[in-house]
Design a protein that fits this description.
It is built from 11 helices and 11 strands. By secondary structure, the protein is of the alpha/beta class. The protein folds into 2 domains: 155 residues, Rossmann fold (3-Layer(aba) Sandwich); 150 residues, Isopropylmalate Dehydrogenase. The termini are far apart.
């Protein structure tokens, strides 16, 4: 079988030391299977946070051996989220991972003003997508957290994605800023914001990447489409990152790639003090493992100073 983009990420992460990971409320078999497999591959060292009896029962039902993992007892999902965040704040874990609780519960603990993990950066989400018809891994942001991001929000969102790309080994990732058209028009605000973001990159307000936009999706992904329209761009046809106008567009794009092109979509949250693995119960084991691998690579890059760690807010 041919090597996939995710195989390369898993191999990269497995060559390094496993990263301590606080897993909030892992009371469901598929989560425990993913965590155990990530530990077997030496990507993570899991710390399971939640109702101890319920975690052990779920492990028994799914025949997952968790005997080597530390369990920190917490009475319920809210308590597990808060305790997992506390472990991160104390330096006992370098990654936070969502178990079988609602995303809102986990993120509420993350953004809590006094006890959470917020930094000076806007928190944002990325999908690291393995699209069979595209020649490399593709980062799509933000399709899960920021509903209608402002220009300042987008500055943080794109910088978060660029920093992640650096951690994955890309020296100067290419960022396509998507809109409906490739020309700047006040009638479509996302085109004006795209142009502003490119100027911000020129002036050093966004660093480490090569930005171009606005670009319609066809011009962003297809060099031939860009050439047909007379667009001269180093980004068109070869982006590493797609910055979407808003959550609605990003969510539809990611799900279209997933269900029409059979793409896999690993997901993590950026902009907090540590990477946050935000998986869905519907994700395959392979996608969950890829999410863990990406978070581990980012944690290693931060520890080595190759990706900036964020000061606490």
């Amino acid at each position: 079988m041919a090597e996939t983009k995710y195989d390369r990420l898993l191999e990269q992460a497995g060559r390094r030391e496993p990263v301590a990971t606080a897993v909030a409320h892992p009371c469901e078999g598929s989560i425990l299977q993913a965590v155990a497999e990530a530990a077997r591959r030496r990507i993570l060292t899991p710390v399971l946070v939640g109702p101890a009896a319920k975690i052990r029962a779920a492990a028994g039902e799914s025949r997952v051996d968790i005997g080597a993992f530390k369990i920190v007892d917490a009475p319920h999902s809210h308590g597990a989220a808060a305790k997992a965040v506390e472990l991160v704040r104390r330096g006992e874990a370098q990654i936070l991972m969502k178990g079988s609780l609602h995303t809102d519960e986990l993120m509420a603990a993350v953004v809590a003003r006094e006890t959470g993990l917020r930094t000076e950066r806007r928190i944002s989400h990325v999908f690291i997508m393995d699209v069979p018809t595209y020649h490399k891994a593709l980062i799509v942001t933000d399709a899960a957290i920021n509903i209608f991001p402002t220009l300042e929000d987008k500055m943080h969102i794109v910088q978060n994605a660029i920093d992640l790309a650096h951690a994955l080994g890309l020296a100067r990732p290419k960022v396509a800023i998507l809109s409906a058209v490739e020309t700047v028009t006040p009638k479509i605000p996302s085109t004006v914001e795209a142009a502003a973001l490119c100027k911000m990159a020129e002036r050093g307000q966004i660093t480490g990447g090569l930005l171009d936009g606005p670009l319609a999706f066809d011009n962003a992904i297809s060099k031939e489409a860009a050439q047909t329209k007379g667009i001269k761009s180093e980004v068109a046809g070869d982006p590493d990152i797609l910055l979407v106008p808003d959550l609605e567009a990003g969510n539809m794009l990611a799900k279209q790639l997933t269900f029409l092109l059979k793409a896999d979509a690993a997901g993590i949250v950026l902009g907090a003090r540590v990477p946050i693995v935000l998986t869905s119960r519907a994700d395959s084991l392979r996608t969950k493992l890829a999410s863990c691998a990406v978070a581990a690579l980012l944690a290693h890059a931060r520890a080595a100073g190759r990706a900036p760690s964020q000061p606490e807010r």
